[in-house]
Amino acid sequence: MKNYIVKLLAMVCCVTVISCEAYLDEDPIGLITQNQINTEPTAASITSSVNSTYQLLSSTLNIVGQWNWDDGTVTRNDFLLQDIASGDMQKKWNPDGDQAWMDEIAAFNFTSMNPGFNGIWSYNYEGISRANQAISTLNNEEVLSSVQMDAATKDRLLGEAYFLRAFYYFDLVNNFGGVPLLTEPLKDFADAYNVANRNSAEEVWAQINEDLQEAVSLLPAQKYSSSSEPWRVSLGAALAMQAKVALFQENWSEAINKVNELQAHNFYSLNDHYFDPFDVSNEYQENEVIFSYNHVSGVNPAKGNGLAALMGWGFVAPTDDFINAFEENDPRLGYTVQIDEQQPNKLLGSTDGNYKGNEDSPGNKVFIRYADVLLWKAEALIQTGEVEEGLQIVDQIRTRARNTQMVDGSSTPSDALPNYAGTGMSQAEALQALRHERRVELGFESQRFNDLKRWGIAEEILSDMGKNYKDFNNLYPIPQGEIDRSGGQIEQNTGY
After folding, report:
1. Which residues pair with 365 in a beta bridge?
2. Under 8 Å CB-to-CB from 127, ≥6 apart: which residues?
3. 369: which strand partners?
4. The pTM is what?
5. How far apart are CA 331 and CA 402, in angstroms?
């Protein structure tokens, strides 16, 4: 009887937020349930609840379900919906019919039944579910009064949870537009049916801004929120996300202000070497990474970077269009992907092929780094007419690349990647230069498709690549299973 009730409640909670099939037989690994927190509240269990909220950002294999390729849940699939969709990446070095649904996304010949959309929806809403659980617990004075947790730790953990909820909703609203907005744990059928509808994109953006402001107010004013656990969400990450949200909403002055606020703390700077943010041996010892998921080998539950396993099977390859985008002698190409060796170095965390094929590899997933933030500020400055100031920032990125040796150890020619500032570029030319720089600097970092969409050039660029991209593809389709489970209360995006 107890097992039946557990399954029934699981089905209720899945009505609008995740694909149920993968979760009926076992909980997602690492999950601390609300029941455990309520009946056995300890500082450790509450902390574990927050820790588990990070897990859905990982590339670890089978976080939800077991080898459910047909649900798109084997691993988090940002690389598919961003890098492959944008034309920077192709599924495999040698094209074949394996996981043909990925090819459908690459060509924009997909339907709402494609597993890729169910996968990212499932990961994000499972993350939101865990964040809601953690936030509810940390705001429950009755529970907290019974455990040994100091106010500073409580505030930090709460700030982390607010940030993570905002982060997951940021991904959802960019992929799907308006989505169901859940800010409390679901408890019963009534709760499930009450949220079985879409909130507007404006409402989702408002919640993201509210959560990020809460995070900023709660997180400690230091580079690492926890010196012993530097992977945790920090004040810098929250400020950076506020800047990114402003940028995506074309609030240029706010984006500049938030980057300036971040820079005033002096937490971050460009590393001397381009590859340092991705090098496994430099994790949490360099100056540029602002937020990343901390993959770790040899632990249980698993925390390794499972994307490396897919790379061992021939997945994750550059397109010719991406390769050709790099200027002559730009060392960043070799650090992103070594073509002859078929090694996506940036995603492996090494330049020697180590970890390729290892589903438990330690390479972190970098979500925000300082070079990206600088390019946000440069873009906002150029958009507001401060062309030269914006180009000077772009040149900082180019200079760092020019001063990085080639991946084979040879020197990068001193005349490579010449500066843009002082060359008399118009605003339109400066924006084009900025867009080029973002592509080559941030290649394979799951930024490109969102960039193309927000710049309003996705249809032009992707059609020229031969993709079947239409204007309505600016939003992906809501997974058909979610519409079906809602009884039609969730409406499909236009065009699908």
Report:
1. 293
2. 53, 55, 56, 57, 164, 165, 167, 168
3. 289
4. 0.93
5. 7
Condensed to tens digits (0 to 9), the pLDDT of residues 459-468 reads: 999 999 999 9
Angle among Cα 464, 119, 229 to the nearest 5 degrees reads 105
Q: Buried (b) or exposed (e) across 445-473, using 16+ Cβ within 10 A?
A: bbbbbbbbbeeeebbebbeeeebebeeeb
Q: Is the pLDDT of residue 380 over 90?
A: yes
Region 245-268 average pLDDT: 98
CB 308 within 8 A of CB 316: no
Contacts of 471 (CB under 8 A, 6+ apart): 459
Q: Give the chain's mean pLDDT.
A: 92
* Peptide linkage before 301 cis (omega within 30 of 0): yes
The residue type found at 341 is E
Per-residue model confidence as pLDDT tens digits over 387-434: 999 999 999 999 999 999 999 999 999 999 999 999 999 999 999 999
Q: How far apart are CA 10 and CA 412, in angstroms?
A: 56
266: number of Cβ within 10 Å: 8
The DSSP element (H or E) to which 366 belongs, if any, is strand 365-369
Cα–Cα dist 239/290, whole Å: 10
Per-residue pLDDT band for 35 (boundaries 50, 70, 90) equals: low
Cα–Cα distance, 201 to 143 (Å, whole number)? 34
Contact at 8 Å (CB) between 33 and 52? no
Contact by Cβ (8 Å): 134, 127 = no
pLDDT digits (tens, 9 = 90+) for 268-290: 999 999 999 999 999 999 999 99
State how far the Cα of 419 lies from the Cα of 194, in Å rounded to an integer: 55
Q: How far apart are the first and last CA of the chain?
A: 41
